[in-house]
Amino acid sequence: MGDDYPTLFRSEQMSLVQLYIPTEVAHDTVAGLGGLGNVQFKDLNPTVNPFQRSFVGEIRRTEEMARRVRFFESQIQKERDVVPIRPLDDSAPLVTVGPSAAHNIDELDVTLAEHETRLVQMNESYKTLSERTRELLEARHVLRETAVFFEKASLAETQQTDIRTSFDDSSAPLLQHDDREQQYSSTLQFDLEFVAGTIDRARISTFERVLWRVLRGNLYMNHTDIAEPFIDPGTGAETRKNVFIIFAHGDALLAKIRKVAESMGATLYPIDPNADKRSDSLREVTDRLEDLQTVLYNTGLSRRSALVTIGENLARWQDVVRKEKAVYETMNLFNYDVRRKTLVAEGWCPTRDMTMIQMALRHATEESGTSIVPILHELRTNKTPPTFTRTNKFTEGFQTIMDAYGIATYQEVNPGLFAIITFPFLFAVMFGDIGHGLILFFAALYMIFKEKQWAREELDEILGQFFYGRYIILLMGTFSVYTGLMYNDIFSKSLHIWHSGWEFPPSNGISFAVSTGHVYPFGLDPAWHAADNGLVFTNSYKMKMAIVLGVIHMTFALCLQLPNHIKFKRPLDIYANFIPQMIFLQSIFGYLALCILYKWSIDWSTRSTEPPSLLNMLIAMFLSPGTVEPQLYSGQGFVQVVLLLLALVCVPWMLCTKPYFQWKEMQNIRGQGYVGLGHRNGAPRESTDEVLEIEEEGNGRVIVEEMEEEHEQHDFSEVVIHQIIHTIEFCLGCISHTASYLRLWALSLAHAQLSEVLWSMTLEKVLGLSGVFGIIALVITGTFWFISTVFILCIMEAFTPLSFAKLEEKE
Amino acid sequence: MEGLFFNVNCGFLEGIVRGYKSGTLTQAHYASLTQCETLEDFKTQLSATDYGNFLANEPSPLSTATITDKATQILVDQFNFLRTNAVEPLSKFLDYITYAYMIDNVVLLITGTLHERDTHELLERCHPLGIFDTMPALCVATNVEELYQSVLVETPIAPYFRDCLSAADLDDLNIEIIRNTVYKAYLEDFYNYVSTLGSPTADVMQNILGFEADRRTINITINSFDTAELSKEQRAKLFPAIGRLFPAGNNILAKADDIDQVRQVCENVGEYRSFFDNSASAQNNGDLGDLGVAAQLEERFFRMEVHLNKLSFLQQFQYGVFYSYMKLKEQEIRNITWIAECIAQDARDRMHDFIPIF
């Protein structure tokens, strides 16, 4: 326990603890530890079915409660007017620990059940009422629509006009039509029988078709739309319906129509052909409708008030129910000792937090009002403890990114610490622009400013992610400003802070820059910006920089394994892995990086030779060792041959040394005749020890030695294969990673070009205009430019470097 | 060659269906399911499988019917997902699968109407995959002609009904004949359709459909032993003209009078030989009788069906997996229902009579 202060460098020290918890305080203890959140319990009965565990009954009960709470929630959500749900931190907490806990939970169970039955009852009565209202409404519609129809008919009859044109349905046969015509002319009453009702609009065409076929065309059907939709109170779904009226002749046919209509889900209403009776019933229906609607309104009101009461408590209930379920699920992991009425729990916790856990245990006992304290032991074990890295709100985001690539083994060096700087820096290399960097920076600053407020709210998915990574964005913005200064880029323009090292003497045609004698002190000379060969320059500059950065980053990442080897005392890994890997990397790519730096440091204009291409040099180093065409420095050929040989030697070195030494070690052990002996004798003795110690007294240190888990099969072939894979992976990885770092170059160029395009396409054209029009155009395009800058460059493009930077970090 | 472009249109869906398939319950799942004491345990146990918490929102006293309904609903949702994402010719193939359910629904409705059951209750019992728009109107029909003219004519299963228009009245026997005739037509049509799809699909599906046809043939034969109403010529007409027993076996079966003749026919086909293996000894022991044999036979048929459907997953680039998945999942739902029913009725000794799939 050397370091007392929690660091990100290595994961926390963990200890395996065993807890003896008396059954009476088990619930409160687990609840207390759950609040603390720093014990990871092990499943002590993995062979037991989920429903055969000790606390299934309780879990089932909480599940039932959870179902009720979900029911309330769905009811509240379905309510058309928003029912306020009081947030959790506003409501008084329900005490679920201590002596009154069981009572409280029972009470909650009863309350939930009561609320449910009440709500279900109210829903039902509301549903029947609204069902009846709907029927009456439909009846009224049917009455009205048919009235219109009948009126038209009588009008037509009095005018003696050609009914055929006004009423003829193309589907009605002529015979039927004549028949009806006679009917109309003979009396004002309708002798022709009919069926009227409502049906779902989607089904009307099917309905018509089926009827047509069933009755062989002997019908006359008319239908109109009902304008307003009907809303189902239970589901809130809208249905649109149509009023239909069907004329047909004969009882058999009418019975058939009724049957079809009913089976198709239509509702039929009795309508009288007599106009007076119709208006009578219309009046009656309207009256009844009014009454019903008052009742319905009142029912709805009381239902709503019930929902509001539920909404007051919903968050609290949800919280309690979830907690209870988690507590019992945790308790199901424990071993239940029936004889002593205790639960035995095992779990991992950070060694540093042991006192806190002890405190929590004592606190739980005090609260529950018993005198029996749960007992905590630390167990000695040779199992690998879980990795636990303590993070704060700043480091959390970085650690999460690193964890996405894999979690370091216990106590290994944690790359998350270095990612805090390297990740934003690599991002910034690609995103280098002062303006865009500032936008990111201020956006992150705003989020940090709003931190307290937003942390409590539920953010939507996208915003939530940005908020989670606010500190990453902050650093990315800052670093982008820095690299933007280096690149001398602000929204694709350059800054003139100091005197440029070059000036363009005025001339017509091609002008050549003339050196003014001083050197631009920081970043890229702005003169490059306008130069024709600016792109050529930045291109080669950024590419080489990407490689140099990549080699540095890779070397650094490689060095990270060194502390691990030293800490876990694996000198073999240093000699057999670390050193050859380092030599391999440095002799090829380290050498390339050196050459790049050397080439930069030489003033080629004063040299007699042309500057050599480093890319060709690297290729030639492999293809034709010994011969170098344009030499970078004298003796280059010899140096390169030596380096190449070094790299070649490293491959068998990596490949063979480790397996050989391991094989030799195994031989040694076998030679001393220890094979299996320790294994066979050790396990039972240890276990009897364990049992004995438990039997003797509770608080002795128990030694749990589980040999088989740690003892990996020392199968020699596996070691060899593992080493082969490792070697190949490293050698190829070196090459492919170096190539990957070229992304830094590509993306930073792409970014610069895109922002330049955005500038020249929008703002630049308008800046030349003058007068009022110019100002208006400037405002419009300026907004457009700004919006597109923010969206395209800062958000969309930020993702690309982000994901690539992530990839790079993997190394 | 078919493997070259298969994945362009159907690779996604095949992947999906194979993913669904890997979610079917295994032997270990069944082992733990059969240990359940109550339906609540059953629910807990199922929630650990791919069914997830499909019963989470059901109020507490569970019924086996709810479990079956919910499980079927999952299957229907999966099928609809596949169907909406499918393109020709797979979509047509999937449609063919639904026709079987349509036929079942039509027969159910007609029978129900005949016995004057409530229409809405009948509609609820219909399989959701076989529902079509005009289905409710089926209950007005009184004879087949009318049925066909008014409702079925616009459904895809209309052609299958054309052959049985002659049957005059609707009574129980006629409905049974209609069902079998229609099913025969359906199987033959499906069989022809898969033959047009070419090699791997046709190979796999012809095998499965052939067995399905043979199963129906044997069932019809056994069921018509003691009925005088169904003449032997009529019986012969109901046999699908596909399958391994066709034509020689079908001819013998058409004239068969007892179960021994059926057995002899099955002896001639290697795969079917096992159907009657033990039943012979059982019959010697005495009182099982034809009924017992038929019950046992039914189970063997199911086992055979499961076996054939499992085989279809061994081949790639073919549509058989979609059909097989539906059939396997149906069998799984039957198993779940069976176990749940055994738990509900406390018949632990019979609980293991389900047909394990994997």
TrEMBL record, chain A:
GO cellular component labels: fungal-type vacuole membrane; vacuolar proton-transporting V-type ATPase, V0 domain
Coiled coil regions, renumbered to chain: 105-132
Keyword Ion transport assigned: yes
Keyword set includes Iron-sulfur: no
Membrane topology, as annotated: Multi-pass membrane protein
Chain ranges passing through the membrane: 417-446, 467-487, 545-562, 583-602, 637-656, 766-799
Location of this chain's protein in the cell: Membrane
GO MF term set: ATPase binding; proton-transporting ATPase activity, rotational mechanism
Keywords: Coiled coil, Hydrogen ion transport, Ion transport, Membrane, Transmembrane, Transmembrane helix, Transport
GO terms under biological process: vacuolar acidification
Assigned protein family: Belongs to the V-ATPase 116 kDa subunit family.
Its biological purpose: Essential component of the vacuolar proton pump (V-ATPase), a multimeric enzyme that catalyzes the translocation of protons across the membranes. Required for assembly and activity of the V-ATPase.
The protein's name in its UniProt record: V-type proton ATPase subunit a
TrEMBL record, chain B:
Key words, A-Z: Hydrogen ion transport, Ion transport, Transport
One Pfam family this sequence matches: vATP-synt_AC39
Keyword Transport (UniProt): yes
Gene Ontology CC terms: proton-transporting V-type ATPase, V0 domain; vacuole
Gene3D superfamilies the UniProt entry points to: ATP synthase (C/AC39) subunit, domain 3, V-type ATP synthase subunit C domain
Subunit structure and binding partners: V-ATPase is a heteromultimeric enzyme composed of a peripheral catalytic V1 complex (components A to H) attached to an integral membrane V0 proton pore complex (components: a, c, c', c'', d, e, f and VOA1).
Protein name: V-type proton ATPase subunit
